[in-house]
Each structure stands twice: as C-alpha cells, then as structure tokens.
Amino acid sequence: MTEPENLTPPRRIRSFVLRQGRITASQKNALDHLWPRYGLDPNAPFDPVAAFGRKAPLTLEIGFGNGESLAAMAERLPEEDFIGAEVHPPGVGHLLIELDRRGLENVRVFRTDAVELLEKRIPEASLARILVFFPDPWHKKRHHKRRLITPAFARLAASRLAPGGVFHAATDWEDYAMQMLEVLNGCDLLVNRAPDGRFSERPSYRLLTKFENRGQQLGHGVWDLVYRRS
C-alpha cells in the first residue's frame, strides 16, 4: 500500500520575525484611530487611484522601520504617492503619527508581508520605485536563507516596476551588500545604474537617518544599490 502524498505546501521562510516590541500609548492610539485614514486592506484589490484620488508616480517602501524617513520623503515629494509595507506595530503606529502631524495625504500603509503583497496585490509594471532600506541582515551564516534579497525576490520586484522604474536597496552590512550586488546584477530585468556596475552614491531622496549618521561618525560604511527596470 502506497503512502498518501503530502499535499501540504512547504512553509515559506520569512525574511522577518514578528516581534511584539514595546508599543507606546500614542502608537496604539494611532493604530486605533488613524488606521482607517491611512491603512490598506492586504486582502482586498489595490487600486492606487481609489486609494489616493489621483494617478501619480507610485513608490513602495518595504520595511520602513519607524517611518520617519518615509514621511519626510513623501513631504518633500508631494506630487508623488507612496505606500509603505511593515509588519511591526510600533513602527506602523509611529508612521501614522508622523503622517497625521505633517498633514500628509500621499502615503498609505500595508501591515503585511511585502513578498505576499507584491505577489497578490501589486500589479505588474505599476510602480515607479521600490525601496528596501537597511533590511534585516541576518548576519549569522545559518540565517542567510532568511535574507530578503534573493534571485526570486529580485525578479518578482522587478516585474512590478514600470519600464524605467527604480529598485533601490541600501545596507550597512558589507557582506550583505556584496550578496545583493551579485543577486541584483544577475537579474536580467534590472540594469545597475552605477557607472562601474557596482555601488551608487546615495540619491538625494534617501535621507540620512540618525542611526546612519551615528554609524558614519564611527566609520561604518553604507552601500547603496540602484537599478533601473529595463
């Protein structure tokens, strides 16, 4: 008698760990009261025109942390629209507070896994930019399989960019930077914008964070990788 075939799909390796973290009263209040204004349903079809009330260049930032740089970028580029994807409640709450404080209406937020978002909700050739700033480096070798930037992810992300759209990643871990460079240079949908085909100067829209400023003062490097969708 043959054994029944196991039809359960293999569990996807996540590029993040869902940590509870400490959420402040103001962040919780923002999640309770500002989410209806800025939040998007990850299980519903995503229509940018319906979400923003206009058609404009659209940027997706994956893993926006506390959201301050995303809010600042959106404030500096009011003619563009932005969506942020983050899974950690304190960061989402902090971003919502920033959006409300700055009176911004050109940002919307998904609280979901970015890979699933790209697979299921973001149409092909619909984004002007995809930003991945300082993703978890998973620095232990046995955890490298959890890193976000893989050949499969690069091709998925590139397919969601409009022709000429930009994929921009940045990291302060040199070995991750070298892995990203190999992966992204190997994606036939992406063209490295650096003159030497390696790392780029930081574009002006990527603002320096306090953490990055502190790191630079200590001599830590940061590597930007900027690609164009062919």
Outline the structure in words.
It catalyses: guanosine(46) in tRNA + S-adenosyl-L-methionine = N(7)-methylguanosine(46) in tRNA + S-adenosyl-L-homocysteine. S-adenosyl-L-methionine binds at residues 61, 86, 113, 136. It comes from Methylococcus geothermalis. It is an enzyme of class 2 (transferase). This is tRNA (guanine-N(7)-)-methyltransferase. The chain is of the alpha/beta class and 230 residues long. The protein has a single domain, classed as Rossmann fold. Helix content is 34%, strand content 19%. The chain is built from nine helices and eight strands. The chain has helices spanning 25-33, 35-38, 48-52, 68-76, 89-102, 114-120, 151-160, 174-185, 210-217, and strands spanning 39-40, 58-62, 81-85, 107-110, 127-133, 161-171, 190-192, 223-229. The chain has an eight-stranded mixed β-sheet. Helix 4 runs parallel beside helix 5 (89-102). The longest helix is centred in the middle third of the chain and has 14 residues, at 89-102. It is globular and about 45 Å long. The model is unreliable at 1-10 (pLDDT under 50).
Rg for CA atoms: 18 Å
- As for the CATH topology, it is Rossmann fold
The largest beta-sheet arranges its strands as 1-4-3-2-5-6-8-7
Helix content: 25-40%
Order of helices and strands: HHEHEHEHEHEHEHEHE
Instruction: Provide the CATH top-level class.
Output: Alpha Beta
Strand content: 15-25%
Number of domains: 1
The stretches of 5 or more residues where confidence is low (pLDDT under 50) are: 1-10
Number of helices: 9
Shape: globular
Give a count of the beta strands, DSSP E runs of length 2 or more: 8
Any guess at the CATH architecture?
A: 3-Layer(aba) Sandwich
Largest sheet: 8 strands, mixed
Distance separating the two termini: 53 Å
Structural class: alpha/beta
Overall pLDDT score: 90
Task: Identify the CATH homologous superfamily.
Answer: Vaccinia Virus protein VP39
